[in-house]
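Q: What would this complex look like in 3D?
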Amino acid sequence: MNLSSYEKTYIKGLNAGSYKDFTKLYEIYAPRLYAFAYKLIPSESIAKDIVQETFIKVWENRATIDSNRPFKAFIFTVARNHLSNELRNHINRMETVSHPEILEHKGYGRITHNDMEEEFSLTELIKSLEQAKQKLTPRQRELFELNKEKGLSVTEITERTNLSEQSVRNQLSQAMQRLRKELKNYL
Amino acid sequence: MTGNKLYGLLNRYISGNISKEELEKLKILIGITDEDMLGKRLNQLWTEFEMQKKPSDAVIGEIYKNIEQVYKPQAVHPKSRCALHIAAVLLIILLSGFSTYLYLTRENGIIPNRHITVQTKRGQQATIFLPDSSMVRLNIESSLQYKQNYGYTDRQVNLSGEAFFEIMGNRQKPFIVQTGSVDIEALGTSFNVYSYDSEETVEMALISGKIKITPHSQPENITFLKPNEKLFYNKHTGKMRVEKTDNQFETAWLRGALVFRSVPVRDVLKKIERKYGVTIHLDIPAVENDKFTGSIESDYITEVMQIVQTHYPSKYKIEGNNIYISPK
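A: Here is my prediction, written as structure tokens for the whole assembly.
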């Protein structure tokens, strides 16, 4: 038997409620998921959390796991949202040069002079973003800047703008859709 | 320009060789992307991901144990917690009934003289009505002992742990709490005693009335407390010190609040996580070992976070059940 047929028997066992087979799958995939999560978010406690919650969900959904699908792909779909949320948070909190700063202190042209190999420069990206933002309504632009560039939460924006929470969410989501469309080449 | 620039950046990011500018680009793109797209890119990364270094067995084993605790067949069933609560409630009812019964039978002169012990476990509190209608609220992991003939010749109880007393006035029979290291004598009064065996310091706080404290090691060193005062007694050195205190803080545990006396922030956050059902990610390593004293009473996690903020300059972000605390 090769690995994948072993895997199939484990999944079938898991379907039937075998904790032993659950353990087998855990032994194979938990280290890999942990290593991956840790690469994305270098925090032991977050990586542990991700693995723990993912496998708890695996156990809770044990009856419905498809034994014909690679477990590796399945486990990712279970972990995906958790991974992407944590990654977003982590990247947002990382110290980078924020763009207004770059524009003010470094000037448009100088940022990427030592970055020749890049297929696109930060300047270029910021320019494209600015251009895309021009296509938003002034309100949408304001909300986008408050939320994504200044990092205010929807509630904080509500307090500041006198808009309802629902309205802030709606307009933000419209703004994001528009920007995604404009910048789809980057994503 | 073709797509997948986000993927390229993510790839450099996880290989650990991303420049500051690239990181800034990644930040912008991640800010704009939606769940679907980011999920797709992560999926690509996952498919191609080669594990270079296997995480330690200890870490993987620890997570496994956590899962096992919840799910392994025959794991502790949540129902048993509920049973404990019911048991605690029953205990209160039974004890108050029992004491009344004893009080009544005593009038007839038949007084068995055994010890009655009320003991609380983790997560349990108990209310005890003594035969003279004095009330004792017993906090977690504490025990209160008194004789069946309580009130007949004297009013004495033994305490280990924490309790709040509301004592009926009786000039002839002073009320005495004995702990391992000090005796506290009260007339009609209410006060809190914090005297766990594992702690170095015994704390007594007076809410109303007057109490007299006699340390076992130096009986001549009697101290009286006035309302809103609190006495700290160090069991090892015998040192005593009186401080002003806040009754709200002293009685906070009666209202179900979390109370901390010089507890490492790490442990404080763990308790908050458990009580409010959240996961806290603390990104201020310097603070983890700080000692925190205070009480947390709110029903709302946002108010709790504001309390944390007033102690430590920080900001927090709530996402689902996750709370991120980072430096200001």
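A: To summarize the key features: Chain A touches chain B through 64 residues (CB under 8 Å). Chain A has a mean pLDDT of 83.
Q: Very helpful, thank you.
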